[in-house]
């Protein structure tokens, strides 16, 4: 009886071992399938190596502060083309600095107005022009060096998209809810500047017009057109457009955080082929795993203090008054670096801009009602809301 019991016990142990081995094999198989899945998905991204990106000689305090954030620039290219060539050239219609606090996961976004007069090649020829011309002349590398050289940053990463990517991601999450003003409604349906038909053509989708102002769900084509309109009767111009771009980005972030697995899979399949970046696959996975914790803390336009008008040499431009004081405010509002001091490079560029335009702090005009800034006070260097972000010092 004891022999039979021993045999049964051994058989039971063997069966248990086989079950454990089967479970381990299944887990390994699932992990291999997961790795294969992500490998195939990441193969859809246009990874673009732009080499090293030059920066100003920053102070140790500024370098330490910036190390507490993941910073990159989002470029939306106004190439008026479609397909693979959509991100290959043209001026940037969107240029937003995105900063993620590594501890709190709070996101801050700053739109650098595309007509802002800056040194677009601070590490080279020292050419002064509208900021969005840097991308057209030297792609992401020169555009990043323009940001770093003029704003005392050390950004090396970028994400570039074309308009079809915007329409796809918004359609994949079921649209976004937007309160369309009367002025925006008129601009969306303008026959003089037919933005909706143009976006539909570039994205290969049907043009669906907005039928009324007010709170409503916009589809991909409508929302993308909403980001692009500039000629509105409220006179907000490029300030209003930059605000709408940041608003749509915030709404998309919120929708993606709540997306189902099937929606996320659709987003990956539709959007990744239309995106270029120099983030590595490992870095993308790291950012994606924390996506549920992200929330937008501040959203604003740059420069804060400015003059807007037309000059023969540059056309319609925005002049920072002065660049030096605006860069101080940028570091205060974006990185909570209250004792920041601009480098000599920024001070020199600031002096050149004032010399070339004749504009100083005395020429500042108030555009705060047009900009729609969130989380910052346009009139002082202090924030209007208590920030939950922390500075790494």
Q: If you average the pLDDT, what whole number results?
A: 84
DSSP strand count: 13
Unreliable residue runs: 80-86, 379-393
* Sequence of strands across the biggest β-sheet: 1-10-7-2-3-4-11
Write the element-wise H/E pattern from the N-terminal end onward: HEHEEEEEHEHEHHEHHHEHEEEHHH
Helix content: 40-55%
Distance from N terminus to C terminus (CA atoms, Å) equals: 74 Å
Individual helix count = 13
Structural class: alpha/beta
How large is the radius of gyration? 25 Å
Largest sheet: 7 strands, mixed
**What percentage of the residues does DSSP assign to strands (E)?**
15-25%
- Principal-axis shape equals globular
In short:
With about 400 residues, this protein is of the alpha/beta class. The protein contains 13 helices and 13 strands. The chain has helices at about 1-40, 60-65, 135-150, 165-170, 180-190, 195-205, 220-230, 235-255, 260-270, 280-290, 325-335, 345-355, 370, and strands spanning about 45, 70-80, 90-100, 105-110, 115-120, 130, 155-160, 175-180, 215-220, 275, 295-300, 305-310, 315-320.
């Amino acid at each position: 009886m004891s022999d039979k019991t021993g045999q049964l016990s051994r058989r039971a142990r063997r069966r248990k071992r086989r079950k454990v081995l089967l479970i381990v094999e299944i887990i390994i198989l699932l992990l291999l399938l997961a790795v294969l899945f992500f490998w195939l998905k990441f193969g859809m991204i246009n990874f673009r190596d732009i080499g090293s990106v030059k920066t100003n000689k920053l102070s140790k305090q500024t370098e330490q502060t910036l190390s507490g954030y993941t910073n990159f620039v989002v470029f939306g290219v106004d190439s008026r083309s479609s397909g693979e060539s959509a991100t290959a050239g043209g001026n940037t219609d969107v240029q937003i600095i995105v900063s993620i606090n590594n501890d709190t996961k709070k996101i801050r976004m700053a739109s650098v107005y595309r007509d802002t007069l800056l040194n677009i090649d601070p590490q080279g020829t020292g050419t002064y022009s509208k900021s969005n011309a840097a991308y057209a002349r030297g792609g992401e590398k020169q555009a990043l060096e323009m940001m770093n050289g003029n704003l005392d940053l050390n950004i090396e990463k970028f994400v570039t998209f074309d308009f079809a990517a915007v329409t796809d991601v918004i359609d994949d999450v079921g649209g976004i809810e937007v309160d369309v003003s009367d002025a925006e409604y008129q601009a969306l349906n303008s026959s003089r500047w037919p933005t909706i038909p143009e976006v539909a053509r570039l994205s290969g989708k049907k043009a669906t017009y907005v039928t009324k102002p007010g709170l409503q769900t916009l589809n991909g084509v409508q929302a993308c057109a909403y980001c692009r309109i500039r000629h509105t009767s409220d006179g907000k111009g490029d300030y209003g457009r930059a605000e709408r771009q940041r608003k749509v980005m915030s709404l998309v972030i919120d929708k993606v955080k709540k997306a189902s697995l099937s929606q996320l899979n659709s987003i990956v399949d539709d959007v990744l082929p239309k995106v270029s970046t120099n983030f590595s696959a490992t870095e993308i996975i790291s950012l994606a795993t924390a996506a549920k914790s992200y929330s937008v803390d501040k959203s604003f336009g740059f420069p804060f203090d400015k003059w807007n008008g037309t000059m023969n040499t540059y056309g319609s431009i925005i002049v920072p008054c002065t660049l030096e004081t605006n860069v101080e405010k940028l570091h205060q509002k974006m990185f909570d670096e209250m004792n920041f001091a601009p480098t000599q490079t920024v001070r020199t560029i600031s002096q050149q801009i004032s010399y070339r335009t004749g504009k100083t702090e005395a020429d500042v005009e108030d555009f705060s009602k047009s900009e729609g800034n969130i989380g910052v006070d346009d009139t002082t260097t202090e924030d209007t809301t208590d920030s939950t972000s922390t500075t790494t010092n």
